[in-house]
Amino acid sequence: MIGHLDAAGLMPATRNSDLYRMRIAESEGVMQIIRNLEKQHGKPFGTSAIFDLDGLSMAQIDMSALKCVTTMLTQLQEMFPDVIRKIFVINTPTFIQVLWGMISPCLAKQTQQKVKILGSDWKLHLKENIGEEVLFE
């Protein structure tokens, strides 16, 4: 639920390197689960992410946080290539296309193609693409 995140308040409260380490540790934990599933089933697995931007406004956009996020995405992409299968962005405010234009050049073309910015029918798309059984109410 990114729309309710206080990025401007978070950034001075911690070092960027601490945020990077936290995301890398979390990603490595996810990778361990994926590797175990791949061994059990004998086929490649990956992950999908849902970014809920409900409540996000331009006033919340912090350039230092944006730079931190783009750097982190670039690093994670290099460390864990081809892990993300799909990224769904829901409840997007209208200005999000501008942000996407700033962030997308930091991502590989394959990753850009995995991002789906969904409209008001996002629940239907998520049920079809991920499965209702794994979605939160």
Automatic annotation (TrEMBL):
Pfam families, alphabetized:
CRAL_TRIO
Sorted alphabetically, which CDD domains does this protein's record hold?
SEC14
Q: Where is the CRAL-TRIO domain?
A: 1-137
Q: Can you supply one Gene Ontology CC term for this chain's record?
A: cytoplasm
What name does UniProt use for this protein?
CRAL-TRIO domain-containing protein
Species of origin reads: Caenorhabditis japonica
